C-alpha cells in the first residue's frame, strides 16, 4: 500500500464512509471533494479517477480490518477454550462502528464490475488472514488435533463468518444474535467432540 499524503489520507477517510453508505455507483467524487473542503479538480491532483480513489479506499479498509483481526486474536490468552469466539462475539459491534468493515462487506457483495478482481482478491486475503489466525489459535490450544482436523475447523469457522456477514447486511439484530448463538454452538460442540476423541485415543 503506497504512502499517502495527509490530504490524500483525509480524502480516503471521507470516501471510505461515502462508499460504505452509498456503494460505488451512487457515490459522487464531487460530493466527496465538497466534504473534504476542496474542489473536484483538487481531488484529481491526488487520485486520477474514481477507480483510483476506490482502490485506495479498498486498501485502507483491508489494512484497517486486518489490524483489527490481529488485535482480536492477539488479546486472547493461549489457554482460551473457545478460540475465535471473541472475534465473532464482537462482529456486530464492529460492523456498527467500523466504516471499513461496512465498506468491505458492501463491496464484496456488490463489487463494481470493472473492479471485481481487486475486490475479490482483497476480500479473500482478509478471510484468509482470519482463517490463519483461527488455525494458529487452535494449534496453540489443542496441539493434539491433526492438521486435517484443524484445516476442517478453519473452513467451518470461515463458513460461520461468511454466514454472519450475510446476517449483518440483510437481517435484524435479533435474527443475527440467534444465528450467531446457533452457529457457535454447533462449531463449539464439534470442536469439543474432536478434542475429546483425541484425548481418548
UniProtKB/TrEMBL annotation:
Alphabetical list of PANTHER family matching this protein: HTH-TYPE TRANSCRIPTIONAL REGULATOR PKSA, HTH-TYPE TRANSCRIPTIONAL REGULATOR RUTR
Residues annotated to bind DNA: 28-47
UniProt KW Amino-acid biosynthesis keyword: no
Protein name: Transcriptional regulator, AcrR family
Pfam families, A to Z: TetR_N
Listed GO MF terms: DNA-binding transcription factor activity; transcription cis-regulatory region binding
Keyword DNA-binding: yes
HTH tetR-type domain boundaries: 5-65
Keywords: DNA-binding
Cross-referenced Gene3D superfamilies: Homeodomain-like (1.10.10.60), Tetracycline Repressor, domain 2 (1.10.357.10)
Amino acid at each position: 500500500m503506497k504512502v499517502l499524503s495527509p490530504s490524500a489520507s483525509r480524502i480516503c477517510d471521507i470516501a471510505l464512509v461515502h462508499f460504505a453508505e452509498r456503494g460505488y455507483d451512487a457515490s459522487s467524487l464531487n460530493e466527496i471533494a465538497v466534504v473534504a473542503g476542496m474542489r473536484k479538480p483538487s481531488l484529481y491532483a491526488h487520485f486520477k479517477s474514481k477507480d483510483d480513489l476506490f482502490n485506495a479506499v479498498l486498501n485502507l479498509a483491508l489494512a484497517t480490518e486486518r489490524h483489527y483481526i490481529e488485535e482480536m486474536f492477539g488479546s486472547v490468552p493461549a489457554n482460551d477454550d473457545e478460540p475465535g469466539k471473541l472475534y465473532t462475539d464482537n462482529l456486530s459491534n464492529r460492523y456498527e462502528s467500523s466504516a471499513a468493515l461496512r465498506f468491505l462487506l458492501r463491496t464484496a457483495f456488490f463489487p463494481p464490475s470493472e473492479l471485481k478482481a481487486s475486490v475479490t482478491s482483497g476480500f479473500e486475503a482478509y478471510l484468509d488472514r482470519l482463517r490463519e489466525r483461527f488455525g494458529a489459535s487452535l494449534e496453540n490450544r489443542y496441539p493434539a488435533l491433526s492438521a486435517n482436523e484443524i484445516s476442517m475447523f478453519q473452513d467451518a469457522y470461515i463458513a460461520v463468518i461468511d454466514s454472519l456477514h450475510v446476517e449483518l447486511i440483510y437481517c435484524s439484530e435479533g435474527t443475527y444474535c440467534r444465528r450467531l448463538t446457533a452457529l457457535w454452538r454447533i462449531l463449539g460442540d464439534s470442536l469439543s467432540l474432536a478434542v475429546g476423541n483425541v484425548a481418548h485415543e
